[in-house]
Design goal:
Elements (H helix, E strand, L loop, with lengths): L7 H6 L21 H6 L4 E10 L2 E10 L13 E7 L5 H12 L7 H14 L8 E7 L3 E6 L2 E6 L4 H10 L6 H7 L6
Antiparallel strand pairs: 1-2, 2-3, 3-4, 4-5, 5-6
Helix pairs in contact: 3-4, 3-5
Amino acid sequence: MRHALPTRRTLLRWGGSVGALCLAGAARAQTAMPSEVQAQLPLAKAAGATRMRVFGLSIYDAQLWVAPGFDATQYAAHPLALELRYLRSLKGKSIAERSLQEMRRGGPLDNATEQRWLQAMVDTFPDVKEGDRLTGLHTPGAGTRFFFNGALLATVADPTFGPQFFGIWLAPWTSEPRLRGELLAGLTP
């Protein structure tokens, strides 16, 4: 169902679905560990949380869970989980397309890789509505698992996918350095 929100197209163009521009988020209260994170990373701790806003519109609340020994400068070498709790409706295909745009910030990708990753995300990401949770779980060398409202959706087995995908939020090249800072705020230096 298409929403009549006049700024929806603009919002998606500017990245409202994932790594949007113009972050105006304040750290949010951390929530209890989701069951899918507890099952996969039982020793994980909350590193930080934030709200993504674009042009004053709330898009999602994000929370990062990390395993003991996590080092933000080497985030891709550690197990982690990122939960996005959506605050509005978005199309899964738009989330996938914007994700790929943001992943390109980490360096050039060959066309075959781009197409493979885009198709994997289009096949995985459902349309979301307010209250839905999408959780990505990164296991170094073993791929990335995605959960929707606690249920396993898919696994992207390509070990190079996870570092680029989670880099949208955690890499120094992120388009949202404030978001990165808030997600990593609970880590001791």
